[in-house]
Design brief:
alpha/beta; TIM Barrel; three-stranded parallel β-sheet; 11 helices; binds fe (ii) ion
């Protein structure tokens, strides 16, 4: 066992709560996911059910009740992963962050937000950049999967420059979502535009609650310091509402050109890209 493999990992994005979204489909699956996390060395994890509308936020008492039930079952099963409540909020104009589950673990500073996978209209992007940042700090979930950023990776810099943080999926780094998303993940990591990595777990098989393999990969390809920051230190800061340092530098122009060429040959090879 290498030294870095003992570093405890913290997962800030997981669909563990059952019967709500496309995550866990039963209490058994939910418990199996938590067990999987424990075996992987994950010590803390946030339940982040999808919140697609204002109406769903208004049902937060249902989610909070389910979270209590899961916590009870986890304790009864003798598992030690510490669970928190949060949400993954789909971007929409009436984003109300006053709800208890709006900021993971009630941190009060950061919220987890997702964009549409297809092209986000410029007007939505603009209103997001202009309005929402005033209230709290957005942590943008899986930017590497958005067509807008796949088309132009320097777009990611635009968000980070304005104060947003970026959270990659562990599976994207490893190539589980395909070569193009893997390349973009590595580009964002190289450009120092990534602040956290999370599992975005949905089940125990295809999208498991594991981080260790991606942690080891980042340790070897970049550095153990970087891995520790992305899988432990920054996630801990997010949950406690502490300041996460961000020093974005604009990616070099020539990288964009190189990426443009890559995209061209990729789309030619693959036909149309459907996200
Ligand atoms: Fe998610």
């Amino acid at each position: 066992m290498t030294a870095h493999s003992t570093i405890p990992l913290i997962d800030t994005h997981a669909h563990i709560l059952p019967f709500w979204d496309d995550g866990a489909d039963s209490w058994e699956t939910a418990l199996a996911m938590v067990k999987q996390a424990e075996e992987d060395g994950i010590v803390e994890a946030v339940c982040t059910p999808h919140i697609l509308s204002k109406q769903e936020f208004q049902q937060e008492s249902i989610l909070l009740g389910r979270f209590e039930e899961l916590s009870k079952r986890v304790k009864e099963a003798g598992l030690h992963v510490r669970l928190y409540m949060g949400s993954e909020i789909f971007i929409h104009p009436e984003l109300d962050l006053q709800y208890r589950i709006a900021t993971p673990a009630g941190n009060g500073r950061y919220f987890l937000v997702e964009f549409p996978m297809s092209l986000t209209p410029e007007s939505v992007t603009q209103s997001f950049l202009n309005e929402i940042f005033k209230a709290k700090i957005p942590v943008i979930a899986h930017p590497e999967r958005y067509l807008r950023i796949l088309n132009n990776p320097t777009e990611a810099y635009r968000y980070v420059e304005r104060g947003a943080l970026l959270q990659l999926n562990a599976g994207s780094i490893l190539g589980n979502f395909g070569q193009m998303i893997r390349e973009l993940s590595h580009f964002l990591l190289d450009a120092n535009l990534v602040h956290l990595v999370a599992s975005d777990a949905h089940d125990v098989h295809s999208r498991p609650l594991r981080l260790r393999k991606a942690f080891d990969y980042v340790s070897h390809k970049w550095s153990e310091d970087k891995a520790r920051q992305l899988f432990n230190e920054n996630p801990a800061k997010m949950l406690r509402g502490d300041v996460i340092r961000s020093e974005p530098k604009p990616p070099q122009q020539k990288t964009k050109t190189k990426w443009g060429r890559y995209m061209k040959s990729f789309t030619k090879k693959m036909g149309t890209f459907n996200g």
